Amino acid sequence: MAKAPSVFTCTACGAVHKKWAGRCDACGAWNSITEEAPLSAGGAKALSQRGRTIPLTDLATEEAPPPRVRCGMDEFDRVLGGGLVPASAILVGGDPGIGKSTLLLQATASFARKGVKCLYISGEEAAAQVRMRAQRLGLADAPVGLGAETNLRDILTTLDAERPGLAVIDSIQTMWADTVEAAPGSVSQVRAAAHELVTFAKRRGVAIILVGHVTKDGQIAGPRVVEHMVDTVLYFEGERGHQFRILRAVKNRFGPADEIGVFEMTGGGLAQVANPSALFLSERGQAQPGSAVFAGIEGTRPVLTEVQALVAPSTLASPRRTVVGLDSGRVSTILAVLEARCGIPFTGLDVFLNVAGGMRVNEPAADLAIAAALLSAREDVALPPDMAIFGEISLSGALRPVGQAENRLKEAQKLGFSQAIAPERTKIEGIEGMQVRKMSDLTAFVGEIFGA
Ligand code: TYD
Ligand code: MG
Predict the structure, then answer these.
(1) Does residue 100's CB lie within 6 angstroms of at least one atom of ligand 1?
(2) Which residues participate in the annotated binding site for ATP?
(3) Closest CA to ligand 1's atom 16
(4) Which segments carry the region annotation Lon-protease-like (predicted)?
(5) CB-ligand 1 contact for 241 (6 Å cutoff)
(6) Percent with pLDDT over 90 in the chain
(7) Which value does ipTM take for this structure?
(8) Which letter does DSSP use for residue 137 in this model?
(9) Cα dihedral 153, 132, 85, 262 in deg (nearest 10)
(10) CA-CA-CA-CA torsion for 272, 274, 276, 277, nearest 10 degrees?
């Protein structure tokens, strides 16, 4: 039989190409395409077995699906959408060393203590090392089955024999299927292993959590290849220098996406942070120019964060725009609107923007807080320390109302803020003990706050 030609796969997005290229057409990544053995055709049994279909009406009469299981770590349960859905497949991605194994060992132990039969299979550490970690985390007595295995066939055999309620595979990049001729960690292997595990999970009613490393240089096949196969995709993020870690749902078939869980890395593992707003604002000292408090919403929960700006004369021909924790495209738009609509240029000035505490803010509702921080830094005027801000800025400079205004304001009030700036058409009756000033556009805001 003629040897099937190799395929070329992008390690960043998993797209398959006929020939090598320097840049992936699908995702635009450079130098990410590698040659791999062809996908095997084995397994497809055409016509040997007729599939069975079930009329939709029949399903309604079947008993209700088993309920979700909560592990008791509220931050983890919330991100899952209110607990673990039986027979679901979950991917937890994140940079190496960010704390994925620690988080999942803690979560698995909590599920086990709630009576779920749990297996933790590590392809990266020996069983003794996992046990040592569990001991350090004070989880040594949790009834979790440990395995150190990388061969997919052995893992599936174990799962079939043990029939756990939850199995954690740490990590998908270390697994290898002997039917695929490629190194562990390659796109073909990751795709094949994830496919087998997810199919098995659905058929046998096992909930499965796959751990995936993301590396920026694209050396290891990104979990992006796996994202569409699973029900839920969670990313574990955080800055190395910070203690805070955020578990974020980016896709969830069984709950709201964009939900976050906040943790703090301590000597004894990850501790839950029940009140993230207080944490993110805790480093705020005296009222400083360049600081604005944004009343945001993450998933179903209001979270207050501090946007910090520094504006300084530049010696460069094209001044610096350094943005951490915010979308730099949005920041450029806001700078352009400030210049075009309010006549406040930032030419010849370096701009640095940052969200305190290593948090990432993606909401357009943060626009007005970003503008406020930038103006406050440029004019060297501190904003009132008890002021919270939210609102989206349109290209015309008008302020657009955003969702969940009441939740934002209530959270701000709870944290001791007594005044807020909101877009004009915000539908709120008013919050007791809080002065809410509604403004129609950015020019009005600049005039009122900075007297310009
Ligand atoms: P780990 O869970 O191994 O990361 P990942 O699985 O994402 O690669 O976490 C590794 C880091 O966490 C390591 O730098 C040490 C730190 N850590 C603590 O600070 N406290 C702890 O209790 C544990 C277990 C780890
Ligand atoms: Mg790990």
Answers:
(1) yes
(2) 94-101
(3) 99
(4) 350-452
(5) no
(6) 59
(7) 0.95
(8) T
(9) -130
(10) -160
